[in-house]
């Protein structure tokens, strides 16, 4: 595997003319004609069915319309790297790693997915997200993302559309945050699950080809349409070795590194609703420390990768 700066989704991000974000000549789908990109199918494994198991169909609350639902989401992301002596490496992931936060007011709608278009699969649910105004990313108001998903929440394809007059800095910040929202969204098993039950979801991290994530959900409570989930996250490199192809890597540029260890520190609890396409409240935080060995046997490269998301801020 070779580490590069841009993901496939980033490189293919579409810029929208202003007309596409407003009503220029009658109603139209602003994402019509935007290419759809496949998302890796997650592997979902039931660990424990729990007490009085029931079907957790996440599309059950869709009423066949696309009524708008508003929520504010805060996405924090951090990356730190250092070269340390091999005999001084601490393999444990830190609890409070520094991270930059992007706050996004989102207008979200969901409904029955239409017939698939080019490069799309059949799906039960279509989710459409529009970013509102926030001073942190002012020029990216109107940024849109849409995805098609199964009734379990597994996403098959995604579309991204940025405002034409948005700055590169704001576009990148919003794209990273939205892809984190997508990558951390809940997927449930096809089998019934009750209180105390748990399952794991294993997938490649969308927008970060070099990492895989296993998320373990445990049902803490079910009350009506709302399900409270305790969340644990484990991340690790997707490959045992990586090749550095990045000028900003300095002395590491051009080197091949092998994974010595990886460990994740995480905590989280969220509330999901059958009537909402995103969690309605809660927080999930995770920091993964990856230790790499390179050509120099007396040093190690230590990377800390932090992701946190808070719903309903």
TrEMBL record:
Region (Disordered): 91-120
Keywords: Signal
Signal peptide location: 1-22
Composition skew (Polar residues), residue ranges: 100-110
Protein name (record): Oxidoreductase
Organism this protein belongs to: Corynebacterium timonense
């Amino acid at each position: 595997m070779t580490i590069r700066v841009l993901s496939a989704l980033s490189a293919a991000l579409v810029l929208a003319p202003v007309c596409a974000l407003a009503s220029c000549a009658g109603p139209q789908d602003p994402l019509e004609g935007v290419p759809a990109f496949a998302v890796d199918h997650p592997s979902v494994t039931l660990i424990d069915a729990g007490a009085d198991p029931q079907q957790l169909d996440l599309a059950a609350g869709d009423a066949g319309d696309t009524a708008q639902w508003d929520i504010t989401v805060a996405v924090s992301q951090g990356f730190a790297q250092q070269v340390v002596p091999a005999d001084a490496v601490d393999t444990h992931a830190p609890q409070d790693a520094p991270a930059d936060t992007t706050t996004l007011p989102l207008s979200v709608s969901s409904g029955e997915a239409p017939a698939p278009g080019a490069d799309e699969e059949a799906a039960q649910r279509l989710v459409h997200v529009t970013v509102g105004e926030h001073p942190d990313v002012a020029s990216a108001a109107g940024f849109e993302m849409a995805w098609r998903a199964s009734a379990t929440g597994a996403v098959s394809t995604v579309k991204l559309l940025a405002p034409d007059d948005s700055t590169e800095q704001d576009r990148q910040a919003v794209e990273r945050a939205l892809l984190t929202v997508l990558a951390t969204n809940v997927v449930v098993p096809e089998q019934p699950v009750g209180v105390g039950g748990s399952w794991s979801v294993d997938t490649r991290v969308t927008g970060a080809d070099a990492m895989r994530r296993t998320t373990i959900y445990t049902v803490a409570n079910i009350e009506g349409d709302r399900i409270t989930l305790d969340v644990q996250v484990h991340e690790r490199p997707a490959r045992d070795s990586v090749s550095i192809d990045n000028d900003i890597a300095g002395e590491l540029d051009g080197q091949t590194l092998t994974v010595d260890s990886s460990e994740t520190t995480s905590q989280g609890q969220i509330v999901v609703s059958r009537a909402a396409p995103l969690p309605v409240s809660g927080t999930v935080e995770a920091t993964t420390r990856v230790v790499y060995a390179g050509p120099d046997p007396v040093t190690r490269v230590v990377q800390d990768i932090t992701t946190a998301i808070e719903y309903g801020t």
